[in-house]
Amino acid sequence: MAPPPPASMPLTERLMQIAQTLQFGWFVGHVTLLLCTFRYGLSYITFNFYSRWAQLSYRTAFVAAAATYGIVVFKAYRARARTGKAQPGGNLAMITDENVQYLAMALIWLYSRQMPLALLPFSIYSIFHVATYTRANLIPTIQPPGAAASAGGASPGRAAARSSPLADSIGKFVKQYYDTSMTLVAGLEIALWFRVLMSALTFSKGSWVLLLIYTVFFRSRYSQSSFVQGAFHNAATHVDAIVANQSTPPAARQAWETVKGLVWQATEATDLRKYTGAQTAKKQ
Known about the structure:
Elements: H1 11-19, H2 22-45, H3 52-83, H4 98-111, H5 119-142, H6 145-151, H7 156-159, H8 165-201, H9 207-224, H10 226-243, H11 250-269, H12 273-276
Helix pairs in contact: 1-5, 2-3, 2-5, 3-4, 4-9, 5-8, 8-9, 8-10, 9-10
């Protein structure tokens, strides 16, 4: 992220300066996503899934998600264009970029039938993005560290070292809950795959195509996210413990071992990094 404007500028000019950046548009997109998710949640708990406001909130949330990830992808492309550096691994490597993948999924969910569970992973990411931007950009812009320290009576020599208590609280929140939240996201994305599978088994319109697309997306998530890998490992360990029980029929044990073997072979065969040589891009 770009640093906040200099504290010597008037407040209005500082706010105008950050409001004219792509990063601020990215922040507004995440805020919009959270507000729309909250509004859709109100409709969901009152069983008004397909009311006018519910549909508007749901679609707008994914428009905002696509905009935020689109900004990140555009900035990465622009940075490479300015330096003249080619995409590592060629154009095919772009599909291994997490930001490109989430941009694609946001657009797919936007034009697919409503599936409320799909909003939750995006919303959790947005909570941390909004918190981080607020801490690193908004708070220092509105109340520069030096000004806050001077208002509190601190000496000029110590003014720059003093930060906002609110910024400190946000930093502690992010540090304390980030890993837990990413584990929750991994669980939600696994649950979402089964939700899409259920739609496919009931032959909902377009569900088999959606299942194929989401499976490709989720396979990539598995290769890139240690949290998704950990969630799968924990689930497999739990099933192993159940299957190891003496009361489990031998046929069930054999079936489970066969499933694990097939999943492992499919995982190895679909590892795109072997073909592109691309490095995982950090999702923003």
